[in-house]
# Entry
Amino acid sequence: MIRSLKDPKQFNLVSRTYLDADMIQFLCEPLLSINIPLIQSICICIWMLSKNDTFYKRNDVLYTCNSLLRTLVFLIRTSNALVSDLIQLLAIIIKKGGTNLQEICNIPQVLTIIKMVFTNSQNLPAHCVINAISILTYFLSCPSIELSNKLYNTSMSISKAICKSVTEKCIIDPRVVDIASNLSSSLLRLYSTITKRVSLNENLKKHTETAKLFKNVAWYMIKHISLPFVQKNLNINIYYKSYRKVIKNLLSPFRESLSIPARQNISSHYAASRIISILYELIEYNKIGILAEELLFEILFYLSSAYLEINRHWPGGIDMFRNQMIWSFKNFPKTPKDLCFVLTNSTNIDTKHLIIIFIYFYLLTCSNNEKESMYLEPICDYLCSIQNEIPIPIIKAVLFNISICFVSHHAVNAISGLTFATKKLVELINSKIIDLIFTHHPALLYFVFASSIIPKKIQLQLIKQWIQNSDEICLVELEKFCLNNHKAKLCLMNVLINDTNIDSNKLQAGFNIIKKIITTENECNEHKTLLIIWDMLPIYLGSFCCTNNQKGIGATNLTFLLNLTEPCSLRGPNISINEHRSIVYTMSSIIKIHQSTFTEQYSLLSSLLQHLLTLIQLSNSDVLNTIKKNKDFLHALEKLCLSKNDNICFLAINTVIQLCQLEQEETVIEHRLLYSITLKCEYILNAMSRLSENCIISSIILFKIILQYYEEGICKSVEFTEAPSVDFLKTIFLQLETIISQGLDRMSDHAWECMTTILSTKLLKHLQKLTYLKIEFATDPWLNFILANSKSFSERCLEFLYFWFRHFVINDEDNFTIRGLKVLCPSLFDNTIVNISVTLVNQVYEKNELISKAKSIIQLILENKFLLPDELKGKMNIFVNQN
# Structure
């Protein structure tokens, strides 16, 4: 029988005779036999008969498939060597049988066979697994396939297994590539099938999530198997079949019913994988060029729709653009030299536009200086030849292309048409909104600022777009560029200061660039940018405080600008500023903000106050002379000391402190303030009772200054509306104790110093109503508790202790003897002295100065014979006498 079928001349007649005689049923009966040679012969006979089309028009094909399936179930379980032959025969028949056979075939049993083959893949030949998966792909591609969990589970398990094997081995085998390419294409086809059915029948919506899983798995295989294979640039003549399957696989997302955004995203990923340059090289190959050209077409089309916004800006819309692309691709140049020639000499505008777009995405995704620079002259020739208006997407592409080529070219001066082309480009850009033709790439910065032909207006628009569309990497690029390009830096500052429409977060990022530039310059002992800012400040402060129109600098912009002066390290003659104007405008701005309410109130007030403090520190006595004449400012400053915002409260009080210290240095009466700041006790207590460390410390410093100036009568800048009363001093003292009890060293040191000032003030010595406070402060229970329970004493605390012992505890006047009078009945105060002594002796001191101060206190205690345990006295004597 086999011999008769082998004769090609008699094949049709013989095979038809056998089929008419129902030989298929005769052949299928012994398939369950264990006679291997017999089954092999039967498979050859069936395979030869299946070459006749009559085989598929009768029930023979279905009968054969069912018989093969029953045999395979038995043979796979026994790991029979015939499995491979039977699977191959089944794959041939199902493939040639087409959709009709796939619809009537026993799909659940086929899926069972496929799953069994894949499960036993380690014991079976590789081509057996390949044939099994090819059978699965045939069914997945069938548009009328029955949707079932078994189909889903089998497809997903095999797909995930393939993905896992590739991930683990990190090696892309061409056979695996073939399998993955076919399978992922079939999964996308199944996704498309399910999507279409769901759109027609809502009852099938339950399959939607499964369809998404298929799409995701298919995309995973494309991304991690097919794409990397193409990127390897293997010998196409050797791996022709794999290349063909892979490119078909890469094309499959565009052939199935995926959404336009999905296709755009896929095109972007392909382009980012540098597939454009690879496909362009493959176009030259006859065997695979048509497929490569089709894929390149789809990628360019969807990239253009996404990044060049063809639908909005192309004359005639997206359909017209696609039609023009189709016609232009028919004669698309096959080499870079041909591209340059057509761009220079062709009269076909559509082809030129397509070439410009191709170069745009090619340069955007590839890096090759030699190929980049070769397009500069042809692009200049194209620009010079333009007679009419060209579409916005082409202007965008041309601007980017010429920028990249300009940066890459080693001899731009040799390009004769560059000047005229740049002028033509400026004409095209001037009539358009910059954001429509802006591509976020550093090359645009270099080109736009390198050419003297391009006007400042375009440069400013480019910088604004860069700020508005930047991420962290792009901001670093802009920083590097502005650090080396003075013109770009000025443009950046211009945009940041004057544009009130930029988002505050983007604005802050832009000002951070300026701050980093200032820091970098300072490290090199250069202050160019900072000096420019100081020269600008009077102008913009005046613009803000003197105008109410919307053209003036915005509050947010001014805030960020002022913040640039905070880290200022310049002093005296190093900085040239108009002090009078800066101070006047700053104070006027503070008054303006104080009298109005808007969202930036706190941040701008903080920046203005900080700037005023910087001016006070940098400037000479003219500052005081300017401030003393402004009663409204002093009134506003007084109110700001009670601000609910901690930072403003701190800065306002700190400003008052600076004014007081500045006035103290002045001896000429005419430099004293004409108007004074009137503060009440509540101002100090309000700030001292806050949670802000800065507020607490500044209020303590101000209180000490006020106390000193009040008793000496020399301060004209600050006045109390009331003399310090007993209750006020008690409240302050109590608040200082509260601060110390919190255990924060920095605040505690200021508090101890202030308590020393209170106890030493002349008010306690000369005002009769305050003299009895000495005994109260010295014996205050909370103070005794703090001192008795301290584990260590800071330098300021040691100074307080010495003063406290010297002037309060040890007193010859009987009225103020506060220690225990009876040896057998020690007082609470005596216990405090003991605890203080123990701490002084046991504390570890970091500096010799601290040891000296501790010894002085211990010496006082020993000399005045306090009630102390003998052992402690011994330790104290040893401590005093040690070197």
Summary: The radius of gyration is 45 Å.
